[in-house]
């Protein structure tokens, strides 16, 4: 049986090799794998980090074809947002429009146009952040971490993330680090509703 490709994205933005594919696909602006389907040192090709549906207009792609864009996979949209990916304007047009509208409402200091949004988001993806937060202060869909463990905030509760889905989280009151980029948190707080894996009830 072939080994899984290194194209599954965690809420920390890391790209790992695990069997679970998830419910959404995306990319980071082009190709950053080699002819052997191995990732290059740099983990993106451009600032255009997007999150897509798995199926669109019957298109079929051979994943990680040499010279083509590097397909990535996410458990769900909340995971993609935490990693810094916004909705695709082509295959998720309605979600992209909703994201733009929430961006405008949020008061972020950039126009709600793809290039402007991507420029601001890329600065946050690549910045070193160590902001401690309280989950009750965060909107649904935001993600936080304790050490190497990620949690989703949903309905004032925490759910432990894994590649297979969400599980129960301890209620120990320890400080948690914000994973979702601050601009994405503002988008969520301004009314954008991300897709969340069905294991989170």
Can you describe this structure in just a few lines?
The chain is α+β, with helices and mostly antiparallel strands. It has helices at 77-82, 93-106, 114-126, 182-189; strands at residues 8-9, 15-16, 24-28, 49-52, 72-74, 86-87, 132-133, 143-146, 149-154, 157-162, 165-168, 176-178. A hairpin with a 2-residue loop joins strand 8 and strand 9.
Overview of the structural elements:
By secondary structure, the protein is α+β, with helices and mostly antiparallel strands. The protein has a domain at about 130-180. Helices cover about 20% and strands about 20% of the residues. It is built from four helices and twelve strands. The protein has helices spanning about 75-80, 95-105, 115-125, 180-190; strands at about 10, 15, 25-30, 50, 70-75, 85, 130-135, 145, 150-155, 155-160, 165-170, 175-180. A hairpin with a 2-residue loop joins strand 10 (about 155-160) and strand 11 (about 165-170). The longest helix has 14 residues, at about 95-105. It is globular. The model has no long low-confidence stretch (mean pLDDT about 90).
SSE string, helix = H, strand = E? Answer: EEEEEHEHHEEEEEEH
Task: Count the E strands.
Answer: 12
Strand order of the largest sheet: 7-12-8-9-10-11
Uncertain stretches: none
**Envelope shape:** globular
| Distance between the ends | 34 Å
Radius of gyration (CA) equals 16 Å
Largest sheet: 6 strands, antiparallel
Helices, by number, come to 4
Structural class based on helices, strands and sheet pairing: alpha+beta
Beta content comes to 15-25%
Whole-number mean pLDDT: 92
| Helix content percent band | 10-25%
